[in-house]
């Protein structure tokens, strides 16, 4: 069992308790998993009184949603950087796909929580509609790569297909069965690139005009 934090070891700035609690929850999540999360455990980790979290979160569910929201924002930022730093518009889509898979690999507990908190929803979360969201960045990259921005239906379908493709890849690429393929492709990134080439939306020529 990990040792809890305390107010001296993990100080927070006045007025930023909500962020301190989310950060504390993220540390517990990564070290022990979602089952270990509770408002009491988070308060202990943040070094505050057991009652303090209730000023910001009515229950554990609301806290988990805040942690998941932070994950979506982090993923969106990583995707935005991948698109911005790509050498050309065609490579941007591939870089976005690789970035998504690596995020899932490097943050397994957070990644699971992000989708678990969406499982019973009947609509996409509000953040997905924001300009800096990962979903919006994928759509923008598709337009830059040749998708018709005026054909809203096809653009939406291509965005969904792209997102589902990398989500499925993130779920499968960890399997040990693919180790020989990874070695043959020169490592994980070569392996990911090779798979993404088989998805039409990840190649400029594969986009519907």
How would you explain this protein's 3D organization?
By secondary structure, this protein is mostly helical. It is built from 9 helices and no strands. It has helices at 17-32, 39-46, 60-85, 89-106, 108-116, 134-144, 152-172, 179-184, 188-196. The radius of gyration is 20 Å and the shape is globular. The protein starts with 16 loop residues before the first helix and ends in a 13-residue tail after the last helix.
Features:
209 residues, mainly alpha, Arc Repressor Mutant, subunit A, Tetracycline Repressor, domain 2, globular, disordered N terminus
Give the overall shape. Answer: globular
Span between termini: 56 Å
If classified by CATH, what would the architecture of the largest domain be? Answer: Orthogonal Bundle
Q: What amount of the residues lies in strands? A: under 5%
- CATH class of the largest domain, please? Mainly Alpha
C-alpha-based Rg, rounded: 20 Å
> Number of helical segments?
9
Helix content: 55-70%
Query: Helices and strands: which structural class?
Result: mainly alpha
Provide mean pLDDT, rounded: 88
Number of domains: 2
Task: Furnish the topology, listing elements before pairings.
Layout (H helix, E strand, L loop, with lengths): L16 H16 L6 H8 L13 H26 L3 H18 L1 H9 L17 H11 L7 H21 L6 H6 L3 H9 L13
Describe the structure concisely for a colleague.
By secondary structure, this protein is an all-alpha fold. The protein has helices spanning 17-32, 39-46, 60-85, 89-106, 108-116, 134-144, 152-172, 179-184, 188-196.
